[in-house]
Description:
alpha+beta; eight-stranded mixed beta sheet; two-stranded antiparallel ribbon; 16% helix; rod-shaped
Amino acid sequence: MLAPELWEDLLEEHGLIVERVDILNAPPADGSPVSCSVFHARRRTRVTSRPRTSTPPPPNTALGVGAILHSPHGVLLGRHRRRTWELPGGTVESGETLTRTVVREVREETGCTVREEDVVLLGMLLDDVGDVVRATVAAVVTVWDGEPADQPGEPVGDWRWWPLDRLPNGLFVPSAQCLTAWRPELPIDHPPARFHPLGSNGTPSMAG
Length: 208
């Protein structure tokens, strides 16, 4: 005779959930009592999840990256057709990791080749622009191949190396925020942003 607890364990091992156990005692016919256990069990059902709606949500967040390439000649900045100076970077596309976005944006805008393992994510900057929360991830590219050059069809060009003590006026705000997250001592004026450091693997840092 197996104890009811052991039967419950065996049934659960086979994918059943025991809801209750009824003990049926029959009157003894020959002086020996008869007891039966009736197990009420059901099969375990899988938990479902509801897919997201395909309807675009109202605009509330823009996620992008700013890539800092620093050489002995200075930091790389390009001139946007809106006349601002900015770092290579742009919006994260569907299915991309943050490091993959940096690799793609640097290649598309400057023609330089970067490997994901040579991208260091510094942290995320959160800034409010109207009703939109702008999230910009500051990244440092430690190694790259090629010389930056204007690329056909790109809105940013005229790439130049700017010494840190002679940065141009008119920096694009997210680029300015990335630069001061990288080098807080830089004398750059820009709207404040909330900075959240990231670890080397892109996870939030516990420091600070």
